[in-house]
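Hi V.,

You were right to ask for the full record rather than a summary. Here it is.
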Amino acid sequence: MGIRFSEYRPSLPLTQLIQTYWTGDFNLYSENNFVQSVIPNGCIELIVHLTHDHCELKKEDAWGRSPEFTLIGLQTKPYIVRFNEQVQVFGIRFNPEGIYTIFGVPPSHFTSTFESGRDVLGPDFDDYCSRLRESGSIQEKIFLTENFLLKRLSNNTNSYDYVKLASEIIRKHQGAISLDDLIKQVPISVRQLQREFKKRFGITAKEYMRLSRFNAIQKYMEGAGHFKLTELSYENGFADQSHFIREFKLLTGINPRGFLKEKENFIVNVADQ
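Predicted structure:
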């Protein structure tokens, strides 16, 4: 496949905000124009390049070298990554409320795009990344990362947060919850929740439900050797198979059967719900 991933769980104080720490080696065979399509999973990726070799990302219809420390926002469609050399990175996969809670930065500032983490997250972040690169083992990298994140978290105490609560409930139900049922557990109006959700994350609660449900589908497809589309549609609350296929194509750019045949061309990072 040309890609190697390893994932590491965060400590208990950070588990509600961070999905995982991970290391990635991309384009293992140093192919020219090695292309992958990244499937949206409802998370935010913070990627620190460990070597001088970077991938290429598209922004405003122009391809360019990814930032040294890349912050990839919530995506509602697949996006393409190109490699011309082997690339080594250390990553932090945040739940969407994690970036806001830890850094005080609304993810809506970079929804459906990417930014330089150095520009968005402040000068102490730049110092953290430099020390991360200098560290040796993965254990050292995680220790350094946890200390940095916990210190930032202690500096950004937040009051009771309805948007954070709503996003946690949506993930708990794997997106299979109606707005009416969600509001029963989050004591604000539908209109207010939709407005605040969009303002904070750059997407609506309904869009986040779609991403969460699709993530559950990807997790099911990973674990199941064989399955029928009718069963998969029913298990995940779709009205019918055609509805399921339409949504699948929206989030992958291809139908389910084609996706399974060409899976080596996709990066699928399934998030825990």
